[in-house]
Amino acid sequence: MVGIVIVSHSWKVAEGIHDLVMQMAAENDHIFAAGGMEDGSIGTDAFKIQEAIEKANTGDGVAVLADLGSGIMSAEMAIEMLGDEIEVRIADAPVLEGAVSAAVTSTSGASLDEVIAAAEEARTVSKLS
Amino acid sequence: MSSKVYECIEKIGNCIIANKEFLTELDREIGDADHGINMARGFTEVLAALDKESENIGEVLKKTGMTLLSKVGGASGPLYGTAYMQAGKVCAGKTALTPEDGKAIFESVIAGIQKRGKAVKGEKTMLDAIIPASEAYSAAIDSGAGIGEALDAMCKAAEEGVEYTKTIIATKGRASYLGERSIGHQDPGATSATFTMQMIRDFFKG
């Protein structure tokens, strides 16, 4: 099963999205939040993200959903530090909606490509029509 | 006895920590008001984590970068973390540096920051101080200037770069949300990068 890591500057945001996602994907235990700094302050920590990716990996790859600017940069650094041992991709998607789509798709047994595509589709889904 | 490379990092760290409020204030104008706080936290951790006696320049720079990466938190964590780690790669195993090494460090640092931040010159970022500083330094060395003169040229170009950031719109980072309202404000990252270069100059000119 494709693992999912939710990255936010705020641990509350990351944990909150994780809670919301788990409502839709209760049987998926490869979804992890990596929010905030070690001491709980606002920020992103590449090492924390790296650890979450390692936990989320079952061998089928890991999709990362991240919020603003440095969330992406820290995720990229985490991926570089991991080297080639785990297939990891960052979805170009809004973190909350993307995480929900990715989790539902992953739980259905889809591939990493399909999970990333589902997350990125969340960018264009209209909420009002 | 602390090593020279530790003393240089300590000088940079103390300057950043002393300018915590100033850098945060600049970031309050056009960003998320955390640049000084984040950088000061990072360097406090760096100074505590480094082996004060190590003369292995590459190791000390790498450790500085890794610590900034994990402790800074904002975009400056991955960016400065990358910068110091890239500099560390160039200095791997070295216990002394030549003026030519300075050129190689600049090249590696700029490539790393550009890759990480996906920014180019003119986007109101640290690169607007670092790229002209690198060009001025290299030009001075190539024309036969002494290291002191080259470091002065580097700092002058960096300071002009900071002034230049006041005149342009931010298109990268949190400041990009402000669009034209970012004009008139100097970039906090270009400012901290310039402090770094000024401290390096002061260290070498001692």
Structure keywords:
heterodimer; A: 129 residues; alpha/beta; Rossmann fold; B: 206 residues; mainly alpha; Serine Threonine Protein Phosphatase 5, Tetratricopeptide repeat; 9 helices; 69% helix; globular
Description:
The complex is a heterodimer of chains A (129) and B (206). Chain A has 129 residues and is of the alpha/beta class. Chain A has a single domain (3-121), classed as 3-Layer(aba) Sandwich (Rossmann fold). In chain A, 48% of the residues lie in helices and 15% in strands. Chain A contains 5 helices and 4 strands, in the order βαβαβαβαα. Chain A has a 4-stranded parallel β-sheet, sandwiched between helices. In chain A, helix 2 (46-56) packs across helix 3 (69-82). The N and C termini of chain A lie far apart (32 Å). The model of chain A has no long low-confidence stretch (mean pLDDT 95). Chain B starts with a helix and ends with a helix. Chain B has helices spanning 4-18, 20-30, 35-49, 57-71, 76-90, 99-117, 127-142, 147-165, 188-205. In chain B, helix 2 runs antiparallel to helix 9 (188-205), helix 3 (35-49) packs across helix 4 (57-71) and helix 8 (147-165) packs antiparallel against helix 9. Chain B has a single domain (4-205), classed as Alpha Horseshoe (Serine Threonine Protein Phosphatase 5, Tetratricopeptide repeat), CATH 1.25.40. Chain B is built from 9 helices and no strands. By secondary structure, chain B is mainly alpha-helical. The longest helix of chain B is centred in the middle third of the chain and has 19 residues, at 99-117. Chain B is 69% helix and 0% strand. Chain B is globular, with a radius of gyration of 16 Å. At the A-B interface, helix 3 of A face helix 4 and helix 5 of B.
